[in-house]
Amino acid sequence: MFSDTLCQLPWDAKWFDEIDSTSAEARRLADSGDYGPVWIGSLTQTGGVGRLGRKWISEPGNLYTTALLPADLNPEKVGFLALTVGLAVRDTVVDLSQGRIVPGLKWPNDVRVNGAKLSGVLIETGLSTDRNRRWVSIGIGLNLAHAPDVEGYKTTALNALIPDLTCTPQHALTILDMCLRRRLEDLTSGKHSKIRHNWLEATDQNGALCRVTLGSSIIEGRFEGLDQDGQLLLRDHGHNLQTITAGDVEMIKERN
Ligand code: BTN
Q: If you take atom 11 of ligand 1, which residue's CA is the nearest one?
């Protein structure tokens, strides 16, 4: 899926002061025949995109970046890539905070502290214009200095959690590059059960009642872990085990 040499050296980084979206720029690069590996970073985005087509508020001070990689990914591998990236962003936060923050993961890869979102990941795949080569882009937003107001969920930022910690987006990207390449080695060497195990150790969803929305379909159930393919398992109200492959997951508050 990824070549063995992909993880060995730091990936180049192209920085912009402002751009529409680093993920849109990754697609433009791929359309021009450049498949990386490269990080595209920007200090601010005028059209930042989140999952399910949502807007990603992109004020200066946070990290906005997309890794563009040549890859041949089948859907099962994309699922494990999503878990792997979540682990890598979590590692990045642990490193940047010198171990003072150990976030939890919400399926597939939201990085959260006390239930508030610190980072989001948007993975996209595509084909070269001649349809012979595949690429993957991994867009990551990490709240370093600002926790944007977003309807529907709580947010936080590194600086709000540790006020004496100042971290530039460029420094955060250096650490993220190291953490992602290290975690991707597990994926390139086929260590799927290790990734699944590490993700289960890192999640903050244990025991939670969850609601998954995908289009007009809504499924509620209690978190039961991940299946062997890294898909989310929920025990619904009728005690049936539901396997979730995609969707927006929220945790439901329960009264005691
Ligand atoms: C989510 O909705 O949780 C995913 C958010 C992903 C945001 C990042 S910021 C860098 C990259 N460029 C974008 O436009 N989106 C991703």
A: 139
